[in-house]
């Protein structure tokens, strides 16, 4: 995926709509320590990722009034910037620092270490309303050694990759994308753009871009071991040595690169191809049910974006863990913390006041749980929906139709579950090999996926190095554990 829009994978287009700003923010010391002492200890300390909204104090004043009325506590919500969150939470977790709630990072490892409270029985008891609204995939995807340690935000429980096209050029050259199903299908259109729009990049590929097939990695793409969703779903494969894996698309991308459809410096480029600009023609995006097709991408771009799916809608572990909130095992307020999580995920008045901003200033509620965004609405005066609370109770913009809502519900119900859903690979026996494999992959990933490297030459070399790094040992260990996982499901 285009590195610029890896951020969109986290949230889908809804993230752009609801204003997630991805710059880092400063440290925490000061407010965090002070706030836990407010209200005779009746304040919960909660860590969140991203930038603090500019009207944070006003948002929290309104929110805390309702939270205090409902559960007798307030919340001190502390933001940590995107670039710092994982590192700072690792320090907070390993040091045993006292906090109550946090957006989880390294969820499985920290759960296995005992850093998080066991919520298996607490969620049905103290957060029954929210818990009952969760798709079963969330439960399966977050169960670790038979226990549940997270309250996941109910949102895009499935995702699929799409090729998205800039309508400026579709309209200008009367290009039809209705039959596009693969990267290769784009070639005639890319030729038109290359010949007639010299200042436009036909394919917006850069560092971090990945070709996408119905291949699901057990860990991530730096460990090339996966399951073919449409093949033998009990077998762990290396998709870089299997003809039906990613190899056909790698060859297509190399052809595009040689034809000039991809920037020459794509493998190392951090160029931003902004969604709303006319610097690009085609890109890869991620969409889920709450994106309502191209509705939210179109809003973010301020012009029509037309997309075609290239993967199947799959409920997988990554989506199940997209926004997990956990309770610290050191928290002295575990029950109240779960009550707060329930409130954030079941109280429409509270949640919508956070994700849209101050009512009648940035938004106005209409009939039938619809909203109209006012002129004052902007990216910095509200919180983002994907990592705040239950998307099912977020009011919809007035442009979303009842038919779209029904289609969303049907799509969630009909989406397949990944064969890897809930599988947690224990890496204890292969840590050295995994480090070596990561080092090998870092030499080839961007070059192969942007088409810069010729796969006919690079893949044999890469696979030889992977074998030397211990890939087969890891695959065998992974297959053994996966076999045991599948037996346990029967």
TrEMBL record:
Read off the InterPro entries from this record.
Bact_solute-bd_prot1, DUF3502, SBP
Name assigned to this protein: ABC transporter substrate-binding protein
Q: Which organism is it from?
A: Carnobacterium divergens (Lactobacillus divergens)
> The organism sits in which domain of life?
Bacteria
- Answer yes or no on keyword Signal: yes
- Gene3D superfamilies, alphabetically? Periplasmic binding protein-like II
Q: Does Zinc-finger show up as a keyword for this record?
A: no
- Signal peptide region: 1-23
Start and end residues of each DUF3502 domain: 419-487
Its keywords, alphabetically, are: Signal
């Amino acid at each position: 995926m285009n590195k610029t829009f890896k951020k969109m994978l986290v949230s889908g287009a809804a993230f752009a709509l609801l204003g997630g700003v991805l710059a880092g923010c400063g440290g925490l010391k000061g407010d965090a320590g002070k706030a836990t002492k407010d209200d005779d200890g009746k304040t919960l300390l909660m860590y969140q990722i991203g930038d603090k909204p500019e009207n944070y104090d006003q948002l929290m004043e309104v929110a805390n009034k309702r939270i205090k009325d409902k559960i007798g506590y307030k919340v001190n919500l502390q933001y940590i910037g995107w670039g710092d969150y994982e590192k700072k939470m690792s320090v907070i977790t390993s040091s045993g620092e006292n906090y109550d709630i946090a957006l989880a990072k390294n969820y499985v490892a920290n759960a296995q270490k005992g850093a998080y409270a066991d919520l298996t029985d607490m969620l049905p008891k103290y957060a029954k309303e929210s818990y009952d609204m969760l798709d079963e995939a969330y439960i399966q995807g977050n169960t670790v050694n038979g226990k549940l340690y997270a309250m996941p935000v109910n949102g895009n429980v499935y995702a699929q990759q799409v090729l998205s096209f800039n309508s400026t050029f579709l309209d200008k050259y009367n290009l039809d994308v209705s039959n596009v199903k693969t990267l290769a299908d784009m070639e005639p259109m890319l030729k038109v753009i290359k010949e007639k729009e010299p200042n436009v990049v036909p394919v917006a590929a850069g560092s971090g871009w990945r070709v996408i097939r119905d291949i699901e990695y057990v860990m991530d793409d730096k460990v090339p071991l996966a399951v073919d969703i449409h093949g033998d779903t009990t077998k762990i494969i290396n998709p870089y040595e299997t003809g039906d894996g990613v190899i056909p698309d790698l060859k297509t991308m190399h052809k595009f690169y040689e034809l000039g459809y991809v920037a020459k410096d794509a493998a190392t480029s951090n160029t931003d191809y902004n969604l709303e600009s006319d610097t690009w023609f085609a890109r890869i995006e991620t969409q889920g049910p709450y994106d309502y097709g191209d509705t939210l991408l179109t809003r973010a771009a301020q012009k029509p974006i037309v997309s075609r799916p290239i993967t199947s809608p799959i409920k997988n572990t990554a989506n199940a863990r997209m926004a997990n909130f956990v309770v610290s095992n050191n928290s002295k307020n575990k029950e109240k913390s779960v009550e707060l999580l329930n409130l954030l995920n079941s109280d429409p008045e509270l949640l919508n006041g956070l994700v849209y901003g101050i009512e009648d200033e940035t938004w106005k509620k209409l009939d039938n749980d619809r909203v109209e965004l006012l002129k004052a609405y902007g990216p910095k005066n509200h919180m983002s929906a994907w990592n705040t609370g239950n998307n099912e109770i977020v009011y919809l913009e007035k442009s979303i139709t009842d038919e779209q809502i029904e289609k969303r519900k049907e799509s969630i119900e009909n989406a397949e579950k990944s064969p890897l859903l809930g599988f947690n690979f224990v890496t204890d026996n292969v840590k050295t090999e995994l480090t070596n494999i990561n080092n090998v992959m870092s030499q080839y990933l961007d070059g192969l996926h942007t088409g810069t490297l010729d796969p006919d030459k690079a893949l044999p070399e890469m696979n030889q190095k992977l074998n030397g790094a211990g890939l087969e040992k890891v695959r065998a260990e992974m297959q053994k554990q996966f076999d045991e996982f599948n037996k346990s499901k029967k």
